[in-house]
Write a structure and sequence with these properties.
The complex is a heterodimer of chains A (about 160) and B (about 425). Chain A is α/β, with parallel strands linked by helices and about 160 residues long. Chain A has a single domain, classed as Aconitase, domain 4, CATH 3.20.19.10. Chain A contains eight helices and seven strands; from the N terminus they run E-H-H-H-E-H-E-H-E-H-E-E-E-H-H. Chain A has a seven-stranded mixed beta sheet with strand order 4-3-2-1-5-6-7. Chain A is globular, with a radius of gyration of 15 Å. Chain B is α/β, with parallel strands linked by helices. Chain B has two domains: about 250 residues, Aconitase, domain 3, CATH 3.30.499; about 150 residues, Aconitase, domain 3, CATH 3.30.499.10. Chain B is about 30% helix and about 20% strand. In chain B, the strands form five sheets. A five-stranded parallel beta sheet of chain B has the order 4-3-2-5-6. Chain B is globular, with a radius of gyration of 20 Å. Classes of the chains: A alpha/beta (about 160), B alpha/beta (about 425). Chains A and B meet through helix 2, helix 5 and helix 8 of A and helix 2, helix 3, helix 5 and strand 7 of B.
């Protein structure tokens, strides 16, 4: 069972890992322990592997810092479901193999603290009696995430995704 | 059908005609990373991709700009990593402490070229659109792949066209005010996944274009371009003849904005699109004024502030820190007497670089403090305590606010 961690609109990467907790200042690439350190101080302590993040519009806007999605990955988040996701953050998540779904109706249906069953292969969230079918990402995005990120994808296929 | 500037550049870089929505692999003209992102880029390149050499050392630039001079051992280590990687790979374009902010130097030193794709491991890489470069920010992994292969994959973006009518009717109204007004008009995600083209702004200088294009990332844009023209050529760039606006290009959306009626704008905490007329927030007391960043740390910005502060003194409650965008800006400001004016007015000076914009050093804010910043982000915790409050404004508004101790419309000075 997974817990839903719900966030609002325009959660920027400074709120995921503030600049002061960046590897350049801490000398530590393990940013997971600082994840949402000021926005939700309990997050890094209480999050369990397999939990999911549900967010509003424009999740991950702002800085290109990859250590923000790295932090989320290190916390074991199984997927991000948002109304919409900012561009660089979305790419970083794909590259790191973090499943991301843009699905406003699923976001509406889920509340913070909900206990759900998430199935990444089916792209579904079972919430009580309700089964939410998530809008799937583009096939080439699914292909990258399936390989665990862009680097394993590239090493396997010896090429960038082409959409063909 | 004609192509947008982005479609033209990406077609050239892909070696075939492409249109919005196509997934393409393109040649990258220049790629860069900073002390904040470079160590992760190098690690992915070597340890994960297994690449030992960059694709072309002449087409890669590295910058120690985010925490300079090093604030602690970790940042010193990060910068040492860039230094030794540059030496090992033969990367000549390595810029160390105090040389300046990556986005400033990429144009100042002509490291990017009109009509090319530029990938930077920093979100404000859209700044390069000022000279007609498709500049886009990416994360460490994407940038590592560019370092290793010289290529990247992209979805060709749709384009949001912004047509600017008229010119500013008051000398205290600037491109920063225009950028904030656009943020307010289209929203902080108004251009997500899109390229932005700003038209009818041949009157803007290259530094003004840099402010405009850098700010497009704050609307979510993948790239922000101004059609390159004789202003860009006069700045020392070769503009390819094919890099022109096609009359029949297809835009996903067009917005029009009137520059003549624009008044000074301020972005209030804690989002860039939370914008008001400066005049409407004039009761806000100010603790810190920060003049600098890739958005507004150029010579023109320092000069504008000096013109306002000359012969006066900032309010005794206010701490004002000036961080020039590059060593060249600092040196020229010194030569022109701009620094003398700023210092005489009570401002202090930081090493050229990103300064306190990212809340890491050189002016970190405490809870409850109010900062007027000429930068580009006012997210909670951006410059220090999440309880600090950041207002984004033009250099003119910042300088006048330093004088009065309250956010002040510079037209009222």
């Amino acid at each position: 069972m997974a817990r839903v961690w719900k966030f609002g609109d325009d959660i920027d990467t400074d709120q995921m890992v503030p600049g002061r907790y960046a590897p350049i200042l801490t000398g530590d690439d393990n940013t997971g322990k600082y994840c949402f350190i000021e926005r939700r101080p309990e997050f890094a302590k209480e999050v369990q592997p397999g939990d999911i993040i549900v967010a509003g519009r424009n999740f991950g806007c702002g800085s290109s810092r990859e250590y923000a999605p790295v932090a989320i990955k290190q916390c074991g988040i199984a997927a991000i479901i948002a109304e919409s996701v900012a561009r660089i953050f979305y790419r970083n998540c794909i590259n790191l193999g973090i499943p991301v779904f843009e699905d406003p109706s699923a976001v509406q249906a889920l509340a913070d603290g909900d206990t759900v069953t998430f199935d990444v292969l089916q792209g579904t969230v079972q919430h009580g009696n309700r089964l939410l079918l998530l809008t799937p990402p583009a096939p080439f995005v699914q292909a990258i995430v399936r390989e665990g990120g862009i680097v394993p994808y590239y090493l396997k296929y010896k090429r960038f995704p082409t959409g063909e | 059908m004609g192509q947008t500037l982005s479609e033209k550049i990406l077609s050239y870089a892909a070696g075939k005609p492409v249109h919005a929505g196509d997934l393409v692999v393109v040649d990258v003209g220049t790629a860069m990373a900073t002390d904040a992102t470079g160590p992760a880029v190098i690690k992915v390149m070597k340890n994960e991709l297994g690449a030992q050499r960059v694709f072309d050392p002449a087409r890669i630039a590295l910058f120690a700009d985010h925490v300079v001079p090093a604030a602690n051992i970790a940042s010193a280590d990060a910068q040492k990593t860039l230094r030794s990687f540059s030496a090992e790979q033969g990367i000549g374009h390595f810029y160390d402490w105090g040389a300046g902010i990556c986005h400033q130097l990429l144009i100042q030193e002509h490291l990017v070229r009109p009509g090319e794709v530029f990938v930077g491991a920093d979100s404000h890489s859209t700044t390069a659109g000022a000279v007609g470069t498709f500049g886009t920010g990416m994360g460490a992994t994407d940038t590592a792949m560019v370092f290793a292969t010289g290529k990247t994959w992209l979805k060709v973006p749709e384009t949001l066209r912004i047509i600017v009518h008229g010119r500013f009717s008051h000398p205290m109204v600037t491109v920063k005010d225009l950028s904030l007004k656009i943020a307010n008009t289209i929203g902080i995600d108004g251009a997500t996944y899109m390229a932005v083209e700003v038209h009818n702004v041949g009157w803007m200088s290259v530094p003004e274009r840099m402010t405009m294009c850098g700010m497009t990332t704050e609307f979510g844009a993948k790239a922000g371009l101004i059609p390159p023209d004789d202003v860009v050529r006069a700045y020392g760039f070769d503009v390819p003849s094919w890099l022109t606006v096609a009359d029949d290009a297809s835009y996903a959306r067009t917005i029009e904005i009137d520059a003549a009626s624009l008044v000074p704008q301020v972005a209030m905490p804690s989002e860039v699109d939370n914008v008001a007329d400066a005049d409407a927030v004039s009761n806000v007391a100010v603790d810190v004024v920060f003049l600098g960043t890739c958005t507004n740390g150029r010579l023109e910005d320092l000069r504008a502030a000096a013109d306002i502060l000359r012969g006066k003194h900032i309010n005794q409650r206010v701490r004002m820190i000036v961080v020039p965008a590059s060593h060249q800006v600092l040196e020229q400001a010194s030569r022109e007497g701009i620094l003398t004016d700023l210092l005489a007015a009570g401002a202090t000076l930081g090493t050229p670089g990103c300064g306190p914009c990212i809340g890491r050093h050189m002016g970190v804010l405490s809870a409850g403090e109010v900062c007027v910043s000429t930068g580009n982000r006012n997210f909670p915790g951006r410059m220090g305590s999440p309880q600090a409050r950041i207002y984004l404004a033009s250099p003119q508004t910042a300088a006048v606010s330093a004088l009065t101790g309250y956010i002040t419309d510079p037209r009222n000075a």
